[in-house]
Amino acid sequence: GRGQRVRTSPASRMGGTNSKETPEQTAQQASNLQKKAVEKGGSPLQLGQGETFELTPNRGCTDMVFLLIWIVFWCGMLAIAVFALTKGEPERLHFGYDFNGNTCGVGGMKSRPFVYYVFPYPNNLDSGSLEGADFTWAACVKTCPTPRLVFAASIPIPPNSCMQSFKVTLEAEDATGTSNVVTCGDQVDGTTDMTQFGVKGFVKYVQYCLQYRPLCTCKKASVNATSSSCCIPDAVADSVGAQVFADNIPQVEKIDSKIKKQFGIPIGYQYGFCFVPYPSYAPGSPQPTPDKNETTIGAGSWTRCIPMLGSPQSNVSADYSKSLALIESSMGSNSTAADKDGKAKGMEKALAAVVASMSGPGETAKALVEQVRKYKWVIAGCAGIALIVSILYTFLLKIAAFPLILTIMVSVWVLLAGMCALLGLKAGYIQPNQLPGSSWAATQMPEGVTFGPAETNQQLVIAGCVMTGVCLVAYSFVLCIMVPRLKLACQIINVASVCLASMPTTLLFPIIQFFFSIAIFTYFIVVLWYLASAGSWDSNLHRYIWDENLQRLMIVHFFGMLWGQAFVLAVGNLAVAGAAAEWFLADDKKSMKFPAISSAGRTLRYHIGTAAFGSFIIAVVQLVRWVFRYYMYQLKKLNKEGTFRYFVAILSCIGECCLSCLERFLNFINKNAYIQTAITGKSFLPAASAGCLLLIRNCLRIGTLQIIATAFIFLGKYFVALVVAVIAAIWMVALDSGGSISDGWANVSSAPVFPVVIVLILAFNIACAFLDVWDMVIDTIFQCYCMDEEYGTGKTPGEMKSCVAENPPSSDDIQAIDAITTGAPGSTSTRNGARV
């Protein structure tokens, strides 16, 4: 005869089917692959005498060992939370602390909320290294010091400042008049009255105020309990924290260290209470005006003082230059013009040094946690927005899947093309007049954004243009492959829509998962905030440190967050799979009574251990990925400029790719295990084995249909996450700009990266919770269909049968499936009767 005619779908023909393959050859390929699938996947399922294909009625609790482990672990998590809340001081992360461990802006330091680094200068300002910079010598100040050249009784006063007022007894030869006691930092702004020292005021200021520090009362009950570390500014006399007097003689101690100098100018003795300040300000707080020497506490959240050099207050820098010259003359030395120019250039690098001081792992972690604290309500609001967008997306997916997915695919392409064109203009590759409509578009751009070439960061713009162009080309190829299969994907999604329409309560699962995910994430952030501030004080290093035990607690706490989030998703997947299977196997689908609720009850009663087992595996892999990223980050810091960084970059890319593939593979195993557990009541390992073998045996029945639907649903997850992330960026910038949405849109590129990434991850997880419902329903229906075909019970709905029958796998699909399932690409291909 004419042989068997194998019907191929338009999607298969447009997807690149080999035109040299005849229908007879394709049928032979399918037959050979089916034989190999049976060999690999085992014998088909068979019903025993009197058995029927239905949900297993008599179930037992599965994976109880992991349920007990999960309970014990979360008892430990609660213990960590109690420890953090007891030992932590989160205000320390926000306000910082001085070299005695006192938290600025809190308690006795309430009036001193700013942290001023006395000596942030590295030894070699031209090397880019921070060696020599001292960020443990920090002082709590009322306002960031802004020294000016002022005069008292016609005597010029060089810059000087003290973190608190204290008294020092002069030596006999320095005593003037009837008083031999001077007060350091006695002025309102923390400066010292130099007239106390006579003509050589600054020299004596260095000798007494810089070189000595007060001894203060530590414990009221003990007379001998005195130390400079117990001093509290503005403490009442004879109270804890106040300077000690013995027979009316102020008690002080001489600082046993060499004086710190910069450009030959004495800055102070390390951990002294007085110092020579540089012009500084706190970003976000009002800066001193040109005619006033004052700052006030503003609305900004940044409480660290950074150098003001290069700022608009040019007269401040000018006055400071005069003050430096005055200090030199007071110390009996003068610099040449070239030296002064070198000093001016060197001082400008103090800004970079102060900012770089927060680039270490501990300081970075604290700063990131503080950023999350600052934008906590924005993050919470964006979580709600993600919930609304996800609900809207699933609703539109149900009633208009084809136009929705097509619109998203085209929108992503247009966005990439627009970004590529804009960066091409900025890089100088494209002239504005070469683009149609560029004149009109230029009038619609935010203020400050033009079509002209970038004036700064030209290399960065070029790199961005190249990367965006590569993404555009790659996405265009993907688009050409996906668009022909869009109709097929929508057919599969419509089958899932029929299932979900029969049990709408299933869509409540993502909302419940959302609130549990938010609760776990909030718990994680709050406890981490306290843990990060629970370090112990090291009096030798003059800083709070994270010991090994605290670091271990942080790792366990982070793993708990990963496990908790994965566990919530696992329970939801089990419940959805059970509901979808119950719908598939019901003879009368209209008479079902709340299958979603009954499935949730079965899951919570019998299969919590299975959810704990599967989620534990995913959490471990995710933790390994984060540890790998951390060590790659540390390796990159070892050699930022050398060739070693290229090796690290390649190693990082390969490792991240492998771990990502491993996580996806385990997610695939978990999903199949959950479906089999929901249907048959098996524990995790037997269910995972049964699910994978079932798919191998029936790879020809479902072909690539399952993968196509999953790919389009995955696209929706990224769409929701990106939309919410853009909203978060605009919102955060608008908040910093006083609430102006237009300012937020115009300056969206300056949005804080870490909080936006947090929102992106959170929104993606929320989108996963919703769209995984569709994905899980599709996978469950496909597995039920395969089991029904093997059992021969005929329970498959008509829509599902027609969808599979109308879309058999093409020759290319068969070869791809063969490569995946049997590991022998092209082994079933036949050409002219010969096996290749």
Give an overview of the whole structure.
The protein is mainly α. The protein has 26 helices and 22 strands. The strands form 11 sheets. It has a two-stranded antiparallel ribbon. A hairpin with a 4-residue loop joins strand 19 (536-538) and strand 20.
Compact summary:
Helices cover 56% and strands 8% of the residues. By secondary structure, the protein is mainly alpha-helical.
* Cα distance spanning the termini: 26 Å
**Could you report the average pLDDT, rounded to the nearest whole number?**
74
Q: Please compute the radius of gyration using only Cα atoms.
A: 35 Å
| Overall 3D shape | elongated
Strand content: 5-15%
- Spatial ordering of strands, largest sheet: 1-2
Low-confidence stretches: 1-20, 286-300, 310-317, 446-457, 824-836
Q: Helicity, in percent?
A: 55-70%
Structural class: mainly alpha
Number of strands: 22
Major sheet details: 2 strands, antiparallel
Features:
single chain, 836 residues, mainly alpha, two-stranded antiparallel sheet, 26 helices, 22 strands, disordered N terminus, disordered C terminus
Helices, strands, pairings?
Elements: H1 10-14, H2 23-41, H3 64-87, H4 91-95, E1 114-119, E2 134-141, E3 150-152, E4 155-157, E5 161-162, E6 166-169, E7 181-184, H5 201-210, E8 212-214, E9 216-217, E10 226-227, E11 245-246, E12 249-250, E13 252-254, E14 259-262, E15 265-269, E16 274-275, E17 280-281, E18 306-307, H6 314-330, H7 337-348, H8 350-356, H9 361-374, H10 376-399, H11 401-427, H12 438-444, H13 458-482, H14 486-502, H15 508-532, E19 536-538, E20 543-545, H16 548-585, H17 595-606, H18 608-638, H19 644-680, H20 684-697, H21 699-702, H22 705-736, H23 741-746, H24 753-791, H25 798-805, H26 811-822, E21 830-831, E22 834-835
Antiparallel strand pairs: 1-2, 3-4, 5-16, 6-7, 8-13, 9-10, 11-12, 14-15, 17-18, 19-20, 21-22
